[in-house]
Amino acid sequence: MKPIPHLAALALMLVLSTAHAQLNDTGQTACTDSAGAAIACADPGDHSGQDGRFGRDAQAGGAAFSFSSLDGGCLQDGITGLIWSGETLTGPWASFSGLAYDRCGIATGWRLPTRRELLSIVHHGASQPASAFPGTQSAPYWSSDTQGGNAWAVDFADGDTKQIDQAETHAARLVVRPANQPPTITLGANIVVPQGDKPGPRTYPAWATGISPGPAREAGQHLTATVELLPLQPGDPKALEFETPPAIDPATGDLTFTLKHRIANYDAQARPTHDYWVSSAGLARLRVTLQDDGGTAGGGHDSTSADFTVFLDPVPSVFSPNIKHAWKPACVPFTMLAMDPDTDWVIPDDWYHGAPWWPYPTFKFLTYPSQGFITDYVSFRTPDGDEAIRFASARGSFDYVLPKTGMVKVGTQAASAQAAVKAVVQDPLPGIQAVMEPRPAHITWIDEDTPGLSFNFAMTWCYVPFSSTFTGSDTFTYQVTDPDGNVSQPGVVSIEIFELK
Question: Could you tell me which of 106, 170, 108 has the C-alpha nearest to residue 143?
């Protein structure tokens, strides 16, 4: 073929530009002078404006065409987006109208190409055939364009166009521009963040799988993934909050986010400095949208969405201690523990300096022991302002008002303790259900020295048997209510008193 002057090639490109935003190159890399003799395209002068000096094949050293094979013998044009059948059919022009054709997983949309589409695969630097398309014959190929009783064809012997009587038999290559299929993604399981985990970025590698732009023919499309926060639904717990919102990497499927949290530093009582932290807790409903750049023309779809949740249970959890203690005539200490991930830490010393009632988790006894009674072993103030020790058992409850001589502990004044015990035993106060609601102290921390699960609220009480000679087992239960009204499952305190041999 003769080299195409640059202006002629530009005119061809303008014609093709209505078919698709991106165009194949011409394939022409040779230049000639006015006499038809070959010259170097890079030479300056009157002949420097020829097509051989321009385009992807000439300037970038790349291929003029970009065809990739698909399963089933089709070829996809990576520049125009068209998919071409790999086989050459023959017949009169009308025989290809409404032809049932199923190739490469595409059962509909196959048709004769337009003249412009056929010209987009002409290789102007070759002849016999003038095409880089495999299996192309050096013969006219039907286009869908007509004029009167004729149809336009492109002759791949030299890339020329001509009108041919529609009744004649000639070659044809079918083409399709399939509607864009939506990308695919499979989300992992809903995320449950364990209570007590340390704050900081969280990563779930390859959490999303099957990420693809769609069928193999769409492999070149670019994917973007976005994650949006959805409104909560009736019956949901409170909203989980994020410092860094969830995101998905479409290349790896990794899910990342950082929960909102607060960290405080506390070094009271000359203890080493520890970091206390409290996290947001609750539920987040999220939607992942995966989008490709294939567009929505022709009824296509360029996105797909799926939902998931991230949950950190805001309901406090409690510990069921099993206390084994040698016989003791007075206080057998036991500690009730609670984990409430979204309640701020407490500085206990502030309680003694006029601080208001703290809005922190409340411990409550559900059932009392049958073989003894429970008491707080340090005094507290009654609603009347008196200092007292509180006692409770299955027989009732009693607040023993202390002498005005100051604060005392159970067991330090035998007479007071005995009087309290007798009051509980002899005056059961029928119908009274005592509710123990002490102010909890934050006693644990999370740092490099204390890894793993940590209970962040605790109350220590005394168990005192009714009989000073009691040995055996006793049980009672408690629960915790956090400031948001969430109530824990019951915790069981089991106590076994044994006699030392």
Answer: 170
